[in-house]
Structures are given as C-alpha cells and as structure tokens.
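Sample log: Flagellar basal-body rod protein FlgC.
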Amino acid sequence: MDALTAALKVAASGLGAQSERMRVVSENLANAQSTGSTPGADPYRRKTISFISELDRASGGSMVEINSIAQDPADFPVEFQPGNQAADEKGYVKMPNVNVLVEMADMTEANRSYEANLQVVKQARDLISMTIDLMRNQS
C-alpha cells in the first residue's frame, strides 16, 4: 500500500473517532438537565469515550479506534427544587453529572481534530490527483 493511501486510511479512522466523540458529547449536552422521573431517582449519567491506537498491518499506519464508551462515575450534584417530580422528601433533586463548560471544550477539541483529519484527506486527495495528472502527461 502506498503512503498516500495509508495517510487516507489513518485520517479516515481519525474522522470516524472524532465523529463518534462529537456524538457522545452532544448526547451529554442534550441531557445536561435530565433528572430522574421519580423522587430520589438517578438522573442522566455523563458518558465518556476513550480511544486506542491500533496498528493496521496492511498500511503500516496507526489507526484510531474507540476503546470504550463508559459512564462517568462522578457524583451527582444536588439542587434544591422542591416542586420537581424527582425531588426527594427534603426537596433536593439529583442533577446529571454533566458540566456544560467541560462538554463545550471537549466539543471544540473534537471539532478541531475532525477538521485536521479532513485537511489530511483533502491534501492526500490533491496529491493523488497531481500524481495521476503527471502520469497522464508522461504518456
């Protein structure tokens, strides 16, 4: 496998990984205020994603793979909301362990990584096109 095709495969694995990361972050943001439905019930628990590097023997490139999508074991913050359906007998509601600022920072980082991988794909595609054009002109 040539180096340009290997670069495309590596960048494609990065695009897939960052796309999944953005999906997880989006889910966390969408549920940042999702409390339980009964008094004292646990709310939405933040999800985390981790990656692992896998060697692709065919290309010799190091691919990004999803290692796991897990739940964040951090404690749930509580808020005093006596009118909420999820409030306990003292009026406290367990809130999701989602920090919107952390999620937004993670989304920004995932977006930048996605864009960087997309640039690699564009550059490799341009180089492949240039190579094909050179080969045509030599004929």
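Observation: DSSP finds two helices and four strands in the chain.
Observation: The mean pLDDT is 93.
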